[in-house]
Amino acid sequence: TRRYTITLLPGDGIGPEVISVAKNVLQLTGSLEGIEFGFKEMPVGGAALDLTGVPLPEETLLAAKQSDAVLLGAIGGYKWDENQKHFKPETGLLQLREGLKVFANLRPACVLPQLVDASTLKKEVAEGVDLMAVRELTGGIYFGKPRGFGTNENGDEIGFNTEVYAIYEIDRIARVAFETARKRGRKLCSVDKANVLEASMLWRQRVMAISSEYPDVELSHMYVDNAAMQLVRNPKQFDTIITNNIFGDILSDEASMITGSIGMLPSASLGEAGPGLFEPIHGSAPDIAGQDKANPLATVLSAAMLLKYGLGEEKASQRIETAVLDTLNRGFRTGDIYSEGNKLVGCKEMGKEVLNSI
Amino acid sequence: TRRYTITLLPGDGIGPEVISVAKNVLQLTGSLEGIEFGFKEMPVGGAALDLTGVPLPEETLLAAKQSDAVLLGAIGGYKWDENQKHFKPETGLLQLREGLKVFANLRPACVLPQLVDASTLKKEVAEGVDLMAVRELTGGIYFGKPRGFGTNENGDEIGFNTEVYAIYEIDRIARVAFETARKRGRKLCSVDKANVLEASMLWRQRVMAISSEYPDVELSHMYVDNAAMQLVRNPKQFDTIITNNIFGDILSDEASMITGSIGMLPSASLGEAGPGLFEPIHGSAPDIAGQDKANPLATVLSAAMLLKYGLGEEKASQRIETAVLDTLNRGFRTGDIYSEGNKLVGCKEMGKEVLNSI
Ligand SMILES: CC(C)[C@H](C(=O)O)[C@@H](O)C(=O)O
Ligand SMILES: CC(C)[C@H](C(=O)O)[C@@H](O)C(=O)O
Q1: Chain A residues with CB inside 8 Å of B125's CB?
Q2: Is some CB atom of chain B closer than 8 A to the CB atom of A172?
Q3: Residue B261 pLDDT > 90, yes or no?
Q4: Peptide bond preceding B146 in cis form (omega within 30 of 0)
Q5: Using the 8-state DSSP alphabet, how is residue B285 labeled?
Q6: Which of A19, B40, B59, B357 is deepest in the core (most CB within 10 A)?
Q7: Beta bridge mates, B37
């Protein structure tokens, strides 16, 4: 048997409910595939703030670093919304990404035939969408310095941030994106604002330079405003997208909403070495927390990404993905993806049905 | 008779074709409303680059400043895409906005009942969408300093930009947005990334402060990633949106694509005093330039905004808007908005039909 240590970070809102389902799914899958998981649950986000006063306790980061992979539920909630920056749940997440050095965020947006009606886009526009956004996650305006509050040369009070990319940061995310595109449709679209921003001009230059290492991948460039339009107009034109931290934040959320089922979408954040961070792309949904209404499938599919990208356990990963599709085929739906003729279930029951499918 | 001087900036691609239509529409409307226009045509963008070597010649900016309003076609094209920053058509547009100090960009996105099928969104999601994006246009990361290329403390080569807002910049755009919302549905949604960026934290603080001057307008806040999703999920929830320069660039383009008819959408850019800048939101469409295929209605509606917001000629403005609707009702469509059962026309013929409707 292979043994792995997994740090579970349930976090806030519906986080604990969906993590509990994903944990059971991992355990059963492991027992069938000869894998033994050691789980360690640690606090992060609002939960950690309430418990320890900080959104990412040292023990949590240490446990995460020492494990083979990290599975996160969700963070945030109204309760902490007015907190100062260092005491925001979001800050804990950013510190975790930085601490784990997971610079490459992979976010698939796939319209499943079973769920095509969930999209607000017309059927013929939505069906068949299958794209992967590769977002730079530990650089750019999220982390750039200088940042803060101050006064400008005229004495006006200002707030400011720095959008900055170094060549090595662009090169390494570009390689991840080209590798990703190579395993998919061999088409990579780099999204930037190189007609205005110097940081984007360097971005475009370096992506073009790295593309010479991947002659089999077709590279194109698109301005971010146009990309935001094209995702609505014809999302099927995209195979793999690479973009910076803030544009990736915006566009990958837009892309996921285009599928209409953000309760289904996982993500993987990977570094050069060390454990990856896996999490559903949805938020903590405080309005339905604790009501057994959450869709656990995004977290279950994040566990599948954990197996594939984090541990190299492709077969076990595939088993989970197949089980999720089978559960959908058998007509089980949580409220967010429910449509007539199907069976409405809660979070726990959905979890049980996935176990049945496995 | 009232007399106004209008600077016409046809620019590149389809720009000259659509400006020529809008000029005729202004002229006829003026003659019926007792308005006399003096038109002055000047080069900008790629056209100016070819003619003078710079994308915004001094004479063009001077003429624009001395006129009562400026009507722009479109700028840019493949030919100049690889140019260095100071010789990009886009730089001319940015210099024009800066030179005219037009800090408030109003971009309506309206789904007309006649064109609801043009949207890629389902009919029930698209119909009735009527929102106004108020984008800050002369600040933020577009103009923030320091910017450029260099090396960081580790000696890595970097490209960088500064996202920066001063209180006075936020306050003045907030007032424009609240005034705009007051004349519409009295709901203002401020979009930022205050969970991560200091510039956004100051933005949110000031928008909240200014809101006390407008107790009749309901203010809400939304993170930019969520806004990108909500525009796809349920665009009807929005009345007026206020956001910064770069988020406004992305979201207003997304919003316009949601209408499915970006060939129909105008924009107005206004300052504290001095002439406003009016332009269609679509680009220069080099692929169809010179083929009499462009939809001139966005520019015609920009001329209507020019009359209303730039000159205070509400009645003349209304006349143009009514004529455009009448032309659509009579079934005339350019290729971009064509659907079965209607009459396909070119740019010039569409212009003639608008004149007929007037
Ligand atoms: C919670 C927030 C800080 C985060 C981000 O902006 O990266 C989230 O929106 C995401 O995309 O994971
Ligand atoms: C052409 C470009 C510089 C411009 C911008 O980014 O502002 C355009 O996209 C717009 O929205 O008017």
Answers
A1: 120
A2: no
A3: no
A4: yes
A5: -
A6: A19
A7: B4
| Identical fold, A1-105+262-358 and A120-259 | yes
pLDDT tens figures, B227-237: 999 999 999 99
Contact of A116 with A82, CB cutoff 8 Å: no
**Cα A104 from chain centroid?**
10
Atom of ligand 1 at shortest range from CA of A76: 1
Residue whose Cα lies nearest atom 11 of ligand 2: it is: B249
Cα gap B340→B71, rounded to integer Å: 33
Question: Catalytic residue at B225?
Answer: yes
Q: Residue range B250-273: average pLDDT?
A: 95
Considering every ligand atom, which ligand is closest to the CA of B269? 2
pLDDT, one tens digit per residue, over A253-299 is 999 999 998 899 999 999 999 999 999 999 999 999 999 999 999 99
Nearest to A131 by CA among A270, A216, A242: A242
Q: How confident is the model at residue A120 (pLDDT cuts 50, 70, 90)?
A: very high
- Residue B353 φ then ψ, to 5°: -70, -35
H-helix or E-strand containing A3? strand A2-11
- Judged by a CB distance cut-off of 8 A, whether residue B121 touches chain A is yes
Strand partners, A334: none
Q: What is the mean pLDDT of residues B282-304?
A: 96
Provide the token pair at B86. Answer: 């100071």
- Torsion angle of C-alpha atoms B62, B66, B68, B69, degrees rounded to 10: 0
A1-105+262-358 maps to CATH 3.40.718.10: yes
Give per-residue burial for A182-203: e unless 16+ CB within 10 Å, then b.
eebeebbbbbbbbbbbbbbbbb
- Measured in residues, chain A has a length of 358
d(CA B74, CA B9): 8
Task: Say how far residue B324 (Cα) sits from the centre of its chain.
Answer: 18
| Nearest-angstrom CA–CA distance, B275 and B208 | 29
Q: Select which of B4, B165, B192, B193 is catalytic.
A: B193
Residue showing tokens 């080209």? A178
- The set of residues, in sequence order, having a beta carbon less than 8 Å from that of A150 and lying 6+ positions away, is A157, A158, A160
Beta strands at B218-223 and B187-192: parallel, antiparallel or unpaired: parallel
Pocket test for ligand 2, best of A198, A222, A224, A225 (most atoms within 8 A of CB): A225
Name the superfamily (CATH) of residues A120-259: Isopropylmalate Dehydrogenase (3.40.718.10)
Cα A330 to Cα A114, A320, A324: the distances in Å are 10, 15, 10
pTM of the model: 0.96
Which sequence spans correspond to the domains of chain A? Answer: 1-105+262-358, 120-259
First-to-last C-alpha distance (Å) of chain B: 19
pLDDT at B356 over 90: yes
Average pLDDT, chain B: 97
CATH number of B1-107+263-358: 3.40.718.10
- φ and ψ of A150, to 5 deg: 180, -155
Distance in angstroms (rounded) separating the CA atoms of residues B15 and B37: 20
The answer to whether A102 and A137 have CB atoms below 8 angstroms apart is: yes
Q: Exposed, middle or buried by CB within 10 Å (0-12, 13-18, 19+), for A174?
A: buried
CB A345 within 8 A of CB A328: no
Four-CA torsion A53, A59, A63, A66, nearest 10 degrees: 140
